[in-house]
Specification:
single chain; 218 residues; alpha+beta; Jelly Rolls; seven-stranded antiparallel beta sheet; five-stranded antiparallel beta sheet; 3 helices; globular; disordered N terminus
Length: 218
C-alpha cells in the first residue's frame, strides 16, 4: 500500500512539475477585432450568450459613463463592462485538457487601472494591467484609437492550461467582447508521464496481489 501511494505521489509530481514555470504570453493587435484562427466562440454577450461569466458586471450596448463599446469587431452589439470595484470571472476547467491553450477577446479603451488575472491549471496565476498589454503610449482609455482598441490574445506555453480569468478594474471601466478559445491539449511528454505513472501503479498493484497470494498459500 505504501509503495502504491508513493508511486501515485511521484506521478502527480511529474504532472505538476511544469506548473511552477508556467507562462502565458499576451499579444495585442492594434485596431483588430473578431476571432483569431483556430478559436471558437465562447461569448458574444448577445441574447444571454455570456460564456458562464459570474461576479459583478454590466452587459450593455453603446457608450456612456459606464463603458464604451470596443472600437473593433462587431460594434453596436452588447459587450461586457466591468465597473470600478467590480469583478467578472470565467471558469475554463470544463474544457478538454482542464483549460485553454489560447484565449482571445476584443479589448476596448484600454486603461492602466484594468487588470486581467489568468488562473493556471495546477495552481498559480499571472496578472496584466492595461498598461502592460498595449504596444505604445499610455493606456489612457481612448475610446477610438487603434492604439487602445484591439484584439487581445493570451497564449499558453505547451503543457500549460489557462483554467480561469478574472477581470477587475479600480475605476470605470474594463470593456471586452467577442471571446474566442482554443482548448488545451496535453503535450506528448505529459501523456508519456501519465502512462508511465499508471504503469507503475498497475505494477505495484500486481506485486501487492502476488504477495498476498503467497502469504495465503504459506
Amino acid at each position: 500500500m505504501k509503495v502504491r501511494l508513493a508511486l501515485c505521489a511521484a506521478a502527480a509530481t511529474l504532472l505538476t512539475a511544469g506548473a511552477a514555470n508556467a507562462q502565458v504570453v499576451p499579444t495585442f493587435a492594434d485596431g483588430v477585432g473578431a476571432l483569431s484562427p483556430g478559436e471558437v466562440t465562447l461569448a458574444t454577450f448577445n441574447l444571454g450568450d455570456n460564456g458562464g461569466v459570474t461576479g459583478s458586471y454590466l452587459i450593455q450596448s453603446g457608450s456612456n459613463s459606464l463603458g464604451a463599446d470596443p472600437a473593433v469587431g462587431d460594434q453596436g452589439d452588447p459587450y461586457l463592462s466591468v465597473l470600478g470595484g467590480q469583478t467578472a470571472s470565467f471558469d475554463f476547467t470544463g474544457f478538454a485538457g482542464g483549460g485553454l491553450s489560447q484565449l482571445g477577446l476584443d479589448y476596448g479603451s484600454a486603461d492602466s487601472y484594468n487588470t486581467f488575472m489568468l488562473l493556471l491549471a495546477g495552481g498559480g496565476s499571472m496578472s496584466f494591467t492595461g498598461q502592460d498589454l498595449i504596444n505604445i503610449g499610455s493606456a489612457n482609455g481612448d475610446q477610438g484609437s487603434p492604439r487602445t482598441n484591439g484584439r487581445l490574445t493570451f497564449k499558453a506555453d505547451p503543457g500549460v492550461a489557462i483554467s480561469g480569468l478574472v477581470l477587475s478594474s479600480s475605476s470605470n471601466s474594463l470593456e471586452t467582447d467577442n471571446y474566442g478559445v482554443i482548448a488545451a491539449v496535453p503535450e506528448p511528454t505529459t501523456w508519456a508521464m501519465m502512462l508511465a505513472g499508471f504503469g507503475m501503479i498497475g505494477f505495484a498493484a500486481r506485486r501487492s496481489r502476488k504477495g498476498q497470494l503467497m502469504l495465503r498459500s504459506a
